[in-house]
Amino acid sequence: MAKINFEKFNKPEVEYSLCEKIRNKIQLRTRLRKIYDIFLGSLYGYVNGVSTSKAAFEEQLIFPEDKFVMPEMKDVFGQTHKNFHAYEATIPPFYVRSFKNAFCFTNREEIFSLERSVVLEYTSQKNNPFIGVNRKIFHSKHVKKLDASVALLSLSGLENNYGHWLMECLGRYYLLEKSKFKPDYYVISNHKPFQKQFIDLLGIENNRIIPSSENTLIQARELIVPSLLNNWEYVDYRGYRFYQKQYLPAWIGNLYKEKVLPKIKKTAPQKIYISRKLASSRKIENEDEITAYLVKRGFKVYCLETMTVQEQLELFANASIVVGPHGAGFANMIFSPRNTIIFELFPEFYHDAGLRIPAKTLGLNYFYMVGKTRNIENVHPQKENIYINLNLFIEALNIIFLDKEVQ
Length: 407
What we know:
Blueprint: H1 12-44, E1 49-50, H2 52-55, E2 58-63, E3 66-70, E4 87-91, E5 94-105, E6 111-112, E7 118-119, E8 143-152, H3 162-178, E9 185-188, H4 193-202, E10 209-211, E11 217-226, E12 233-237, E13 240-244, H5 254-259, E14 270-274, H6 287-296, E15 299-302, H7 309-317, E16 319-325, E17 341-346, H8 356-361, E18 365-370, H9 390-404
């Protein structure tokens, strides 16, 4: 057997040579991809942008432009944190529009005119991502033509998060409900249990649903599209970039007041703690001692993962105070009575301030506390666990109870 000289593989110049070869292969593939894209572009053409004013056949204004004012929010001890600063934001007007013979991919939020130009305003990004894309996307998929009116409620997968489903996806459904447009079908996600339960609760017939989880290209006789509620700015946590919501319109809770809350059973107000012990991240490390104290103080502990949608709605609709670590389950505050106390617990370095926005919009009393994160090595900021000092936690609750007279 021939001997292998391993020494030569340890030389820096050999390492450099190998890196150069890998880099050159990547660069070659990139160049080939660009050449291929140019070829496809010359063959099929590129997607241009068109405004709603030119593409829409008809539109209805549902809610006019408004202003959102967020005051600075200090934590329960009066300390400041940079992502809880004061600001103002313009809430744009909300429309429902009708487009004749328009296209959409069922798993995307963007829409295309009859001429296959993308409608600029319908995207949650700062710039529409389909501008300049070659039109092969329309040729590589079989078009399903529907001689019907179809409402597009897809959010490109964002609606698979419970909070985004409640606030943004069903918020668009409410715009549609307030409009004169009555679609034959809805493009909406229905593959998660909570989505199916909400669809049943709202009375949307299953035979009128086109699942948004399927990547189908459709062309509808009439495509009905509500305005998007998505809005965000960049924030930074420990060198990682995140999206931070900026506003919610004042009408956001109306859908639930009108269609859901009348179906909710009223009980005596209760104090609740929302646990994340079944979640994969952002858990309270010393939760046992925290919940032991809360139970003594009359709280009940819940894991939302084990509850149906109906049970969650009734829980929050009858809560006087909700305590727990930051998570999508807090979006259920949309069902809580005005002046319900929300007390949110954060890890040391991740402070998504998004939930204070619905709390303010809905007239709830919002408090928060920042705990400690004892390990950040190889941990994404969003997944930090939380250590809550019990004595500080007791002090925080005493401040809240004294301030708001919660018994």
